[in-house]
Amino acid sequence: MFDSLEFKKVTTTGRATSNDPVSITHSFKTKKNEIMFRLSRDVMDKCDFKYHDKVHILFAADDTVCRIIKSDQAGAVTLSQQIKGNENSAGLVRLTYKSSLPNFLEKESKDKILDRVRYVHEDDKIQYDSGAVTFQLKLVDTDVKEEK
């Protein structure tokens, strides 16, 4: 009866994958206010990043351009493996929000309260260097906080 139909797969195992080379997600959905920086495996290879490298995360004055750079200086954070044991996993830095970080939730809020925003790189506005990636931010997703 259904032999002539074409079906598409809608279920997967594990986490959803992202095709974005880089992303920044600022989320305050639970009791944790955190910012997560994600580098695809491809970006890590192009920039010679390894899991457990120490990196600094820098922003241009207007918070529209981000640079993630290897560093052994004080204050550097660890680039972790998103999925433990998977050699093709993305690299991840998860930071608890503090006032020295850009407040993307507030920046994008306009007349509503947001509990999540997500940025990727602006088309063709990404630069790969040995030990660094620099990219211009492009807002791609927001979640409005639900009233309780």
Overall pLDDT: 86
Spatial ordering of strands, largest sheet: 5-3-4-9-8-1-2-7-6
What's the number of domains? 1
Number of helices: 2
Q: Taking Cα atoms only, what radius of gyration do you get, to the nearest Å?
A: 17 Å
Give the overall form. globular
Number of strands: 9
The major β-sheet equals: 9 strands, antiparallel
- Calculate the terminal CA-CA distance, rounded to whole Å: 47 Å
Helix-strand makeup class: mainly beta
Topology of helices and strands:
Blueprint: E1 22-27, E2 34-39, H1 41-46, E3 54-59, E4 65-70, E5 77-78, E6 80-81, E7 91-96, H2 104-107, E8 114-129, E9 132-144
What would a concise description of this structure say?
With about 150 residues, this protein is mainly β.
Protein model, in words:
By secondary structure, the protein is mainly beta. Helices cover 7% and strands 43% of the residues. Strands 5-3-4-9-8-1-2-7-6 form a 9-stranded antiparallel β-sheet. Strand 3 and strand 4 (65-70) form a beta hairpin. It is globular. The relative contact order is 0.23. Residues 12-16 have low confidence and may be disordered.
Structural features:
single chain, 148 residues, mainly beta, nine-stranded antiparallel beta sheet, 2 helices, 7% helix, globular
